[in-house]
Amino acid sequence: MKCLLLVDIQNGFCSRGNLAVPDGEAVVPVANRLMVEGGYDLVVASQDWHPADHGSFASQHSGRHPFEMGTLHGKPQMLWPDHCVQGTVDADFHPVLDISRIDYVQRKGEDRTVDSYSAFRDNDREALTGLSKYLVDAAIDELDICGLATDYCVKDSVLDAMLLVPGVRVRVVVDACRGIDPDGVTAAIAEMSAKGAQIVTSAEVLKGDTATSAHLFPR
After folding, report:
1. Is 209 designated active site?
2. Which residues are bridge partners to 184 per DSSP?
């Protein structure tokens, strides 16, 4: 069974969003084409869904500013602008994303005391979201992953998929991803590849080419 996981393709991470990823909306048409032509048995999507007082927000730390390092749950934490707050437009999926083709949505980041980059578990690596059980129950053995942002939520989701979904083959569709920091993207791609994920383009997916891509990838 073959599955496509769309990571956090939300208004908050696209242009004019509260935590915009450079060129983030460029992943939307690629994701839409993958959903139509990629031959997937299942399409799932993760959705950042934070309470308004989430502890990863700089606004919740007196005197601190977005993109400074702070602490949360006793661990180092990048402090973010308020973003993807439950029930706001910022948290909605991008309006051009074809949500009619999404079979299952996994919300994350609902616990104000811990951040959740991965679609599979919180950053403290203790609480699971339930997505791994969903994919195991669906007998998924091939998982393609794309979305936002490469160096945070995509990377953590890819690494956790390989750990928490036994026997799954994971591919990262790099032209359907965008990241925050170019150096961070380079490091993330290298780490995902080193841990066993295949790095591919959407053209290779649509051609049925399973070879690891050696092409340059968007940043």
Report:
1. no
2. none
Report the predicted TM-score, pTM, of the whole model to 2 decimal places.
0.94
Identify whether 144 is a catalytic site residue. no
Within 8 A by CB and 6+ apart from 135, the residues are 3, 44, 143, 161, 165, 168
**Domain 2-50+86-207: CATH class, spelled out:** alpha beta
Establish whether 207 is a catalytic residue. Answer: no
Tens digit of pLDDT for each residue in 44-84?
999 999 999 999 999 999 999 999 999 998 889 999 999 99
- How many angstroms separate the CA atoms of 169 and 162, rounded? 8
Catalytic one of 3, 14, 153, 177: 153
pLDDT in tens, 98-113: 999 999 999 999 999 9
> Within 13 Å of residue 188, how many CA atoms lie on the same side as its CB?
26
